[in-house]
Amino acid sequence: MAKQPMLKFVKIDRDMPEKRSAEQRRQDFHEIYAEYADKKAKEQASRCSQCGVPYCQSHCPLHNNIPDWLRLTAEGRLEEAFEISQATNTFPEICGRICPQDRLCEGNCVIEQSGHGTVTIGAVEKYITDTAWENGWVEPAAPAVERTESVGIIGAGPGGLAAADMLRRAGVQVTVYDRYDRAGGLLTYGIPGFKLEKDVVMRRVDQLEQGGVKFVQNCDVTAEKFNEIRGKHDAIIIATGVYKSRDLQMPGSGLPGIEKAIDFLTASNRKSFGDAVEEFDSGRLNAEGKRVVVIGGGDTAMDCVRTSIRQGAESVKCLYRRDRVNMPGSQREVQNAEEEGVVFEWLSAPKGFTGDDRVSGVMVQKMRLGQPDATGRQMPEVIEGADYVEEADLVIKALGFEPEDLPTLFGQPELPVTRWGTVKAAFQTGATEMEGVYAIGDIVRGASLVVWAIRDGRDCAAAIIDRFNTAAAGMAAE
Fold first, then answer.
1. What is residue 222's predicted lDDT score, i.e. its pLDDT?
2. What pLDDT, in 10s, does the model give residues 131-155?
3. Which residues does the UniProt record annotate as the domain FAD/NAD(P)-binding (predicted)?
4. Residue 379 and residue 460: Cα distance in Å, rounded?
């Protein structure tokens, strides 16, 4: 009888890949976790309980078949594990690195609930796909039949790229239009290298190009350009993401030295590519030697504080108006940031900024948590008389993102939007009320996770292919 390769959680403890020391991590922008060795990946995968109702799978936006590829990994059948992983996820090596597994698959692992420690799903997923790249198992699109239909995609972020991949594999002609000089969107310019090294993104972009996806970079989509793109293609997908930073309107908020998170992170990532970045070289978007205060508690704030540490800041503090338990960012990221030297000031919110020619401090008001709001979260309340000034040479606002005014930017007043400015699109298909126009990802959902953008891109591509097939069948029947 074959030896049971699974259900070893009662004998084997959870063990993440080795993490580089905090002192080492502070010196560079390389990823902080090492790869699993083959034996360790098999061992950790074997801890899966293969439960009848896999909550890890149901809580994954892509509904990845996690139990199956864990079992295949435990059995040493890595190429098959990769094929199962790739079947539902266009970019598993990216999700394995940046998904908040502690809130999704791992956070809902059955053996975690029983006190044995969750299966290290994200780390195994990363190991499977990195092994697939090393062995040449990851292949560009090679459709059996080329189709005449074409799709234009506005935005080269994860949603747009996922849709492009699926459409090309079906033989559809695809062109991606993007405002930046490199594809990838926030994967390229928003997420720091210590979470997602840029060669991981660039090799996927190269693979898409090898598979026949055309990229038009440095392309600002004006009203004229939108009409031109729409006229060229049988369908278009709006996948722009949300890039408009939320702002603070309070005394001193216009002082030099108060910067947007997206500008700060983009400058840092451009430097990692070796680009000349005037705003960084001048010191404006460079934390070196400065007392840095980051305002916000989401994953973007975590990216900013950890980037500041690596740039050589004198000190880095993070202000968040709620407590640690209620912050929206990953708890794993908070732990990593604390190890690296970031100080968190919980229950603290800005009320203004001090300084004459440039910012010199943040006026902070201390908070306490009061009654829950409509969402069930406790609302912060000001503690009177507990204000103080936090000295700062650089303040970074990481308050989240809002959609740009696309109907105006694209010159399409009929493009339907919600009261929040997001594009109205049908659930699952992404279809808008405009004929042949689809929308996916954050521009529909609001600021969300990369994995949701991938899901939307795949769903939308499937809907467009189905539409093309239906139209072709109708023409053939005539």
1. 96
2. 999 999 999 999 999 999 999 999 9
3. 151-457
4. 37
